[in-house]
Specification:
Blueprint lengths: L2 H24 L1 E4 L2 H6 L1 E3 L5 E2 L9 E11 L4 E8 L3 H11 L3 E2 L8 E13 L4 E4 L1 H4 L12
Parallel strand pairs: 1-7
Antiparallel strand pairs: 2-6, 3-8, 4-5, 4-7, 7-8
């Protein structure tokens, strides 16, 4: 290979590498509201139901997940921020991992982050997991236990 061609190829590789680094630096995290995240849900599987004993003496509980989405709607991660037990948090996270989100039409590169909350409500035969908007209240459990 002649010297000028090898220099050009080496220069092209360096420019390509710098360009890729610049693209990674342009990726920003955008934090959004829970309502915005819920509006992005295209499809969701049912959230888990638990045996009544899972909450102990409490009447209800709260599970909070932090999620990150790519702009194409792919869920990058869902991590448990709060849950009555690790097992409950894991089951809610697993259910959300099957959700599909609508893509965001935007030319900029970003990751959308936010929190999703789920109430766990003790009913007659099971503990049901619900979106807070479905039950119409945001409050505390009737039992004094800390969640």
């Amino acid at each position: 290979m002649n010297r000028s061609l090898s220099t050009s190829v080496a220069g092209l590789i360096i420019v390509s590498s710098l360009s890729a680094c610049a693209k990674r630096e342009e990726m920003v995290e955008v934090v959004t509201s829970e309502a915005m995240l819920r509006n992005r849900v295209a499809s969701q599987s049912a959230l888990p139901k638990f045996d009544q004993t899972v909450l102990g003496k409490r009447d209800c509980g709260l599970a909070v997940l932090e999620v990150a989405l790519r702009k194409d709607g792919e869920l990058l991660h869902a991590s448990i921020l709060e849950a009555p037990t690790a097992a409950i948090g894991d089951q809610v996270r697993l259910a959300v991992s099957h959700w599909r989100f609508k893509p965001i039409q935007d030319e900029r590169m970003f990751i959308l982050k936010g929190k999703l909350s789920f109430y766990l409500i003790k009913e007659q035969s099971a503990v049901t997991t619900v979106n807070p908007e479905e039950v119409g209240f945001i409050g505390t459990c009737s039992s004094p236990s800390t969640i």
